[in-house]
Amino acid sequence: MMSVIEKAAGSITDISSNGKVSAPKIATGPRHFDLDDNALAHSGFYHPAAKASRLALELRAVKRRLLRRIGFLRASGERQAYRMPGRQRNLILVTSSRAGEGKTFSALNLALSFAMEDQIETLLVDADILRPKVRNRLGLPSGPGLTDRLLDPSIKTDALQFRANQAPLSVLPEGAQIDRVSDLFATDECKRLLTGLSTEAADRLIIIDAPPVLATTEAVILAKYVDEIVFVVEANSTPEPAVASAVDELLDINPNVSMMLNRCMIGSGGSHYGSYEYYGLSDDAERQSSKSAPAEGASHEAK
Ligand SMILES: Nc1ncnc2c1ncn2[C@@H]1O[C@H](COP(=O)(O)OP(=O)(O)OP(=O)(O)O)[C@@H](O)[C@H]1O
Ligand SMILES: [Mg+2]
């Protein structure tokens, strides 16, 4: 039977120039893909040509605030200045209360913008196993991913990833559709995998596109393992009780929740339609990060 790695290789046999079938190619690292700026622009996503677009400007403000909360950015704007010693605060979960509020749109925009604009190494993980959208948005082929890796820890995560040619962006897709995803996410293996991804590259951001909180327990389970939760609220659409109960569930697990208001009206007369506004629910993380900032003149090497 074909192993999951062989499937990941995307090429099982190879007809060499003399017509003979050569040995199967096994992927040992990520497969590469091209980011299609035109397709991204067409679907309303971040793309580098529109540096001064409203979306790019709004994302910049969101990113700055988010990087400060996780201890990646100083108030002065200096990057990678202070990290919690001994622990990377680089695992970011994107969720919302209900379906269709813009989680994938936000997770992908953040990942694209961090990687393309700031050249920050970024890994986007699709953890919405039942409604995965990341592959489709980036035009990636189907195949094994996160669930396969969790079921078989001998698989190298690298071999399941896609790596963009134009920016330091990698994607770990969702993988096989399975029942009882929450049970899989609740395993020690899931915690180990995410911790491993967090620690193996100190200056990499990991953005996890999760399912909605009120639909399944998966987002709340993943909330245990991450450093920051970006909670997407669809302006003028998500009912307040839904936000309150979803955020309560998350805060019981992890206090580092910040809100990202999607599709918001901005401007004094509410006349402009913007994508994002962002604010921290609890500013504990930011305060903590500020406290752990090294004194001026201290080494700015990431720890
Ligand atoms: N600010 C925005 N501007 C333009 N289009 C948006 C915006 N936010 C979301 N969309 C679009 O709305 C649709 C739903 O968004 P998205 O897929 O990101 O939601 P989701 O919360 O991930 O949904 P699901 O729970 O099904 O995963 C998508 O077609 C997306 O491109
Ligand atoms: Mg989604």
Number of helices: 12
Describe the biggest sheet? 9 strands, mixed
Bound molecules: adenosine-5'-triphosphate, magnesium ion
Helix coverage percent of residues?
25-40%
Proportion of β residues? 15-25%
Summarize the structure in words:
The chain has helices at residues 4-9, 37-42, 54-69, 103-118, 134-138, 146-151, 157-160, 181-185, 188-200, 218-223, 240-253, 284-291; strands at residues 14-15, 21-22, 31-33, 91-96, 122-126, 162-164, 169-172, 205-209, 228-234, 257-262, 265-266, 272-273, 276-280. The protein is of the alpha/beta class and 303 residues long. It has a single domain (29-291), classed as P-loop containing nucleotide triphosphate hydrolases (Rossmann fold, 3-Layer(aba) Sandwich). The strands form three sheets. It has a nine-stranded mixed beta sheet, with helices on both faces. Strands 1-2 form a two-stranded antiparallel ribbon. Strand 9, helix 11 and strand 10 (257-262) form a beta-alpha-beta unit. Residues 1-26, 268-272 and 283-303 have low confidence and may be disordered. Magnesium ion is lined by residues 103-104, 128, 131, 133, 209.
